[in-house]
Specification:
This protein has about 300 residues and is mainly α. It has helices at about 5-20, 25-30, 35-45, 50-55, 60-65, 70-95, 95-115, 125-140, 150-165, 170-180, 180-190, 195-220, 225-240, 255, 265-270, 275-300. The protein is built from 16 helices and no strands. Keywords: Membrane, Transmembrane, Transmembrane helix.
Length: about 300
């Protein structure tokens, strides 16, 4: 009989840490650690049939139907990571933004390679890959909106952001940033503002239950095009997480998305601030090695 899984819990912690950072997706972590398909199918199983199973056959059958131990282990890891790492990630974004961005750049680049290797060779898939890349680049070109943090906007932001969080390559935190809701949500986590958190979580729950069914259908019926689009999204999202931006002056995405920012080379960036090129390059390579190692471990 299955029980609590420390391995899945650790994967959940990695997903939670990724989802806190604008530009990095928890879905990417799920994909490279080999639990993405199981996650989608387990979430999809939380439906009317699950409730019928609960009433007809009891809690044990219901728990088995929804793959409860897997979901519980994963969600506990995500929540523990967000609650414990929100301050740490926020500190890292402010104090060590360039190496941190370089690390995530390496992680995403290696993730794109892993997903790409699963796509059957076809010119049609190449077209889908390009579409995904264009979509991600277009998202990156958008600028933050100004929304007031009300229960309704928190609910709607959660519903939209969770769809991005579960997709490899699309960052839910970045979507929140574009909506102007990133700081209110992070502050709500830091200060445990219960009402705000409940509104946001309720939106996440609704968005997840609706979107996961679409994603599951695509995984079963159009897997090659979907993987091609996801690969393109991962590659396109590299423009979002690129460390060196003209107006950043040492700040990462959460602080540097003012109108007019643009990616520049490290040498152009050096005219404004220390590009930390050596450290950032080493950290990026470590990110690539880490992902490829995780994929090799998780493959069996």
């Amino acid at each position: 009989m299955k029980g609590f899984s420390p391995g899945v819990f650790l994967r959940g912690m990695a997903m939670g840490a990724a989802d806190v950072v604008p530009g990095v997706s928890g879905g990417t972590v799920a994909f490279i650690t080999g639990i993405y398909d199981e996650l989608i199918e387990s979430l999809k199983a939380v439906n009317i049939q699950a409730l019928q199973t609960l009433f007809k056959s009891g809690p044990a059958a219901f728990w088995q139907y929804i793959n409860g131990w897997f979901l519980l282990s994963l969600m506990l890891g995500v929540v523990a990571s967000i609650l414990s790492l929100a301050r740490l990630i926020s500190f890292g974004l402010q104090e060590y933004p360039l190496p941190l961005a370089a690390l995530f750049f390496g992680l995403i680049l290696a993730s794109a390679l892993i997903v790409f290797q699963q796509i059957p060779e076809s010119r049609r898939q190449l077209v889908w890959l390009i579409c995904g890349a264009v979509f991600a680049v277009a998202i990156g070109e958008l600028r933050p909106a100004e929304l007031n943090a009300t229960p309704l906007t928190l609910f709607l932001s959660g519903a939209l952001a969770i769809c991005a969080m579960i997709l490899p390559g699309i960052s839910g935190s970045f979507i929140l940033l574009l909506l102007g809701m990133y700081k209110p949500v992070i502050d709500a986590v830091k200060h445990f503002e219960l009402v705000s958190l409940l509104c946001f979580v309720a939106g996440c729950g609704l968005g997840l239950m609706l979107f996961v069914r679409v994603l599951s259908w695509l995984m079963h019926h159009h897997r090659p095009p979907l993987l091609a689009v996801l690969t393109g999204i991962l590659l396109g999202s590299l423009t979002i997480i690129w460390p060196w931006k003209f107006d950043a002056e040492g700040l990462l995405l959460s602080e540097s998305l003012a109108p007019g920012w643009q990616n520049v080379s490290p040498w152009e960036y050096a005219q404004h601030a220390d590009p930390q090129l050596l450290v950032s390059s080493i950290v990026a390579v470590l990110g690539v090695v880490l992902v490829l190692s995780l994929e090799r471990i998780a493959k069996p």
